Amino acid sequence: MYPDLNLPFIFIIAVASLAYLLGSIPFGMVITKFMGLGDLRKIGSGNIGATNVLRTGSKLAAFLTVVFDGGKGLVAVLFAGIILGYTAALIAGVFAFLGHLYPIWLKFKGGKGVAVFLGILLAVNFWAGLATCMTWLATAIIVRISSASALVSSALAPIWLYLIGSGSAALMATILAVLIWVKHMENIKRILKGTEPKIGKRG
């Protein structure tokens, strides 16, 4: 499927702005504070994502963070797509993702975007999104390292999209995957050194 390039510029700005604001909501911080689990910025890696939320010892909080972070990517894409079409959906996905990585509320210091990425893919193409989720899960079961699962699943996501026939979405996923890898540079160094924490290890 290829995008409709006739979307008025004012609509592009509106979609990008609203998607960014939605994506920038730090649900990990909101959930941990609401549940009395402390300041997420002072726990473990200080990251606002679900992997670090799990280091609080609350599996429920981590699960809710995955759901809400993934949900904001999914909702941004679905609403933009339903109202304005496929081009708007892709734009919304990109900017919801950027909002999570660089939220204005946290001085542009956000998360690494994995859950949001999965939510975006599920909305853009359910089967490719499901394949990416299964890739993450399989890698996690084998190596028990969340960052490795993120790296492998994000790298393969554009391939799943391309094979299914979503060429423009595959290009979008490639751009987002590159950003995920950039955000995981320190994790990559620790993986190579054999010092990357296993899933569930408390900070």
Derived structural class: mainly alpha
Give the SSE order as H and E letters: HHHHHHHHHH
Which spans have pLDDT < 50 for at least 5 consecutive residues?
none
Query: How does the overall form come out from the CA principal axes?
Result: globular
**Number of separate domains:** 1
Amino- and carboxy-terminal Cα gap: 44 Å
What is the subunit organization of this protein? single chain
The number of helical elements comes to 10
Radius of gyration: 16 Å
State the helical fraction: over 70%
- Strand content range: under 5%
| DSSP, total strands | 0
Give a short account of the largest sheet. Answer: none
Mean pLDDT: 90
Topology, element by element:
Elements: H1 9-23, H2 27-34, H3 50-54, H4 59-84, H5 86-101, H6 114-124, H7 126-143, H8 146-164, H9 167-183, H10 185-193
Structural write-up:
The protein is mostly helical. The chain has helices at 9-23, 27-34, 50-54, 59-84, 86-101, 114-124, 126-143, 146-164, 167-183, 185-193. It has one domain (9-193). 71% of the residues lie in helices and 0% in strands. It is globular, with a radius of gyration of 16 Å. The model has no long low-confidence stretch (mean pLDDT 90).
